Amino acid sequence: MMLENLRIVDDREPIGIVAGWGNYPLSVAQALRQANHRVVIAAIKDHADPSLANHCDALQWFGVAKLGAHQRWFQRHGIQRVVLAGKLFKDRLLFHGRGWLGLVPDLECIRTFFPIFIGRQSNQGDDALLGAVVRSYQRCEMEIVPGTHYAPELLAQSGVLTMTKPSATIRQDIEYGWAIAKEMGRLDIGQSITVRDRTVLAVEAVEGTDACIQRTGQLCPRGGFTLVKVAKPQQDRRFDQPTIGLHTIAQMQRTGGRAIAIEAGETIIVDRDEVLRQADAAGITIVCLSHSELSSCAA
Questions:
Q1: Residues 124, 18 share a domain
Q2: 259 and 211 within one domain
Q3: Residues 256-280: pLDDT tens digits?
Q4: How many CA atoms lie within 13 Å of 288's alpha carbon, on the beta-carbon side?
Q5: From residue 52, how far is each of 18, 29, 46, 62, 264 by CA, in Å?
Q6: Is residue 68 within 8 Å of residue 107, measured between CB atoms?
Q7: Sequence-separated (6 or more) residues with CB below 8 Å from residue 67
Q8: Is residue 172 packed enough to be buried (19+ CB in 10 Å), middle (13-18) or exposed (0-12)?
Q9: Residues of the chain scoring pLDDT < 70
Q10: pTM to 2 decimals?
Q11: Where is the domain boundary, 122, 149, 176?
């Protein structure tokens, strides 16, 4: 969905947030409050930060599989636009215990995911699952909107963002890894890979970026590797935009990573100032490539 197609609405419009793990939901809520929106949050249990209650007009805690309850909560507050913000730990939700049925889904959740999990009408990749959520909200006449529509300052801009500059070897690893990471995204496997000496060390899949970095540290105890994190070629900005934050820097520092390459205008940096400060303190360079630069890498 193109951002220019979004309807023009009153700045005081109430906006809903389905809040998962991390600081991204908090950043979106703060941006909405600053723009005089009323903020209504459906906070996912065992994921969302309790401090969100201090940055909204109404908050209710829900299980992740209570999709119909999320929607009724928003409808009671007159919500027509909803932001999906924050990480869900897909591996823990779907592949532990009894899987998705162990989450005790409500009727709307069963209706939404039955074709995927039971009917096997598509794969269980992020695009398929989140696309089904978007269609469910649309049936309730609610629109899923990208959080960066309200907080565009979170999107990284082109350039070397840190005081620490990339070496020639790191630049070679970025160029080598970029096209591979794009292909992983096209296949809806993941958004991140790690590279050292033009060798792919690890590919992100269901476990997420932080766990991919941790696994890289085990495979490459010498460190010195580069994380390449890109948007999918078919990226839907309404969900699953590539994001880095303080946890990313902490994992890179812990495992000896030396560089992060991200995509300009597509990657969210949460807590940007602190991320850059900590990256510089750890000697980690962050490089943000523009569309023209990434095209040359992929060629």
A1: yes
A2: yes
A3: 999 999 999 999 999 999 999 999 9
A4: 18
A5: 11, 8, 13, 14, 28
A6: yes
A7: 105, 106, 108, 109, 112, 133, 136
A8: middle
A9: 1-11, 91, 93-100, 119-124, 291-299
A10: 0.85
A11: 149
